[in-house]
């Protein structure tokens, strides 16, 4: 493409597709056909998907899998997981089954505070700003009454507002740091609307404050926005049992397994290179449920990884110990989730997923998501400390390799039979297929 296109957003969907096909593909008809193959046959449903975002041309599908037998706080759940990576759903289901016979998962919501900030520049006497804030603080609440009324009726609203001096970071930089309760909604729009009103109140009241000189009256609001770092919106998930109860086919010596497992976790606590991959495994479970339930997995990822580095070094989100013959494995993570608002009432599969979870509250969903992350981490560490991670993963990945090489039904049967007793690797599977075809 040699030049920019103007007015692209104003083109019809059909014209957008034709432009892309003719600009970037040697066979435009084939490109158009591919995109249209992923359209929904139901026109109203397709329009719904088209209107989620801008400049839509088709749908991009991810598999929706199911992990049953999760016993959480004495109740069984079947958990929906939207993810493309082989072995993740199978690993979660296997861990769920393992722990269901050992008392299940325990989960507790520790807190549900969410955070928003008005970032502003004030050039003047700090003591006068502090006096101004003390005098004006109540108005930030009263002037958002119309925005918070419904949320307050549901038990949420603005919890607190603080003035924070950040001039040690940036000259003249201050914040209004506010905490919110948002009930069963994630609350991003609610929080941002409140913050924008805070900024209007801040500027208007500063102009009318007699103790300020002309420079001090002209407070510059840089931005008003929620934070996806929510260290006081956290949930704990854990499993525990007697060390001897860990025994199963692949764990003939449970004491040795437990000790090796704890060492593996401690390595992730101490070594950032390992911690990143360790936590990625946790996020395989977390993201899959967050996505299936219509929540913002990018916000969750950013907040959780910031939490993993809260002590100055990136570290493991999960922890393990052996005390008095009891093995305990747990994690504590921040999760800002919602079960009302956003896509939860729009996307048909999100509604399906939430119904399958028996219409959880936001707190219930926090617990379900945290447990899925812990289960995923347990499954990965069990493989790493026993058979190795690749054996199970590559067997699950076998179908992807067969699909890549357009294997016939007969070839599939022969390949799967052969690799029941041989190590699966991409190169070995390709070689075997090529030999079959010779």
Radius of gyration: 27 Å
Secondary-structure element series: HHHEEHEEHHEEHHEEHHHEEHHHHH
General form: globular
* Major β-sheet annotation: 4 strands, antiparallel
Ordered list of secondary-structure elements with their pairings:
Elements: H1 13-24, H2 28-37, H3 43-50, E1 64-72, E2 75-82, H4 88-100, E3 106-109, E4 114-121, H5 126-142, H6 145-153, E5 157-165, E6 173-181, H7 188-208, H8 214-217, E7 220-227, E8 234-242, H9 254-270, H10 272-292, H11 297-308, E9 318-323, E10 326-334, H12 348-356, H13 362-384, H14 389-404, H15 409-418, H16 426-437
Antiparallel strand pairs: 1-2, 3-8, 4-6, 4-7, 5-6, 8-10, 9-10
Q: How would you explain this protein's 3D organization?
A:
49% of the residues lie in helices and 18% in strands. It has 16 helices and 10 strands. The protein has helices spanning 13-24, 28-37, 43-50, 88-100, 126-142, 145-153, 188-208, 214-217, 254-270, 272-292, 297-308, 348-356, 362-384, 389-404, 409-418, 426-437; strands at residues 64-72, 75-82, 106-109, 114-121, 157-165, 173-181, 220-227, 234-242, 318-323, 326-334. It has a 4-stranded antiparallel beta sheet with strand order 3-8-10-9. Helix 1 crosses helix 2 and helix 4 (88-100) crosses helix 13 (362-384). The radius of gyration is 27 Å and the shape is globular.
């Amino acid at each position: 493409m040699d030049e920019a296109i103007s007015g692209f957003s104003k083109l019809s969907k059909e014209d957008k597709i034709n432009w892309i096909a003719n600009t970037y593909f040697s066979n435009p008809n084939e490109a158009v056909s591919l995109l249209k193959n992923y359209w929904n046959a139901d026109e109203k449903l397709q329009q719904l998907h088209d209107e989620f975002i801008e400049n839509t041309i088709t749908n991009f599908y991810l598999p929706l899998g199911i992990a049953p037998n999760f016993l959480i706080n004495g109740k069984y759940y079947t958990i929906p997981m939207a993810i493309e990576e082989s072995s993740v759903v199978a690993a979660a289901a296997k861990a769920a089954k393992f722990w269901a016979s050992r008392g299940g998962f325990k989960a507790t919501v520790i807190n549900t505070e969410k955070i928003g900030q008005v970032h502003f520049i004030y050039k003047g006497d700090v003591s006068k700003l502090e006096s101004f804030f003390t005098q004006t603080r109540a108005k930030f609440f009263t002037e958002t009454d119309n925005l918070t009324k419904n949320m307050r009726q549901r038990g949420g609203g603005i919890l607190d507002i603080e003035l924070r001096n950040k001039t040690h970071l940036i000259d003249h930089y201050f914040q209004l740091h506010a905490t919110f309760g948002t009930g069963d909604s994630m609350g991003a729009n609610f929080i941002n609307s409140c913050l924008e009103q805070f900024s209007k109140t801040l500027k208007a009241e500063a102009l009318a404050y007699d103790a300020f000189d002309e420079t001090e009256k002209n407070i510059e609001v840089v931005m008003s926005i929620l934070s996806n770092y929510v260290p006081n919106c956290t949930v704990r998930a854990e499993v525990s049992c007697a060390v001897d109860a860990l025994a199963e086919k692949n764990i003939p010596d449970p004491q040795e397994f437990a000790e090796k497992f704890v060492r593996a976790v401690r390595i992730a606590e101490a070594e950032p290179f390992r911690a990143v991959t360790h936590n990625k495994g946790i996020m395989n479970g977390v993201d899959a449920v967050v996505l299936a339930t219509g929540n913002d997995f990018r916000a969750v990822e950013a907040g959780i990884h910031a939490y993993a580095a809260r002590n100055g070094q990136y570290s493991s989100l999960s922890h393990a110990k052996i005390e008095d013959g009891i093995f305990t494995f747990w994690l504590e993570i921040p999760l800002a989730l919602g079960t009302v608002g956003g896509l939860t009432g729009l996307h048909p599969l999100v509604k399906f997923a939430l119904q399958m979870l028996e219409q959880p509250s936001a707190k219930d969903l926090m617990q379900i998501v945290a447990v899925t992350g812990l289960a995923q981490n347990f499954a990965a560490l069990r493989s790493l400390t026993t058979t190795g991670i690749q054996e199970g993963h590559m067997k699950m990945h076998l179908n992807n390799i067969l699909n890549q090489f357009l294997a016939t039904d007969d070839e599939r049967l022969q390949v799967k039979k052969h690799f029941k007793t041989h190590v699966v690797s991409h190169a070995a599977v390709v070689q075997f297929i090529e030999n079959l075809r010779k």
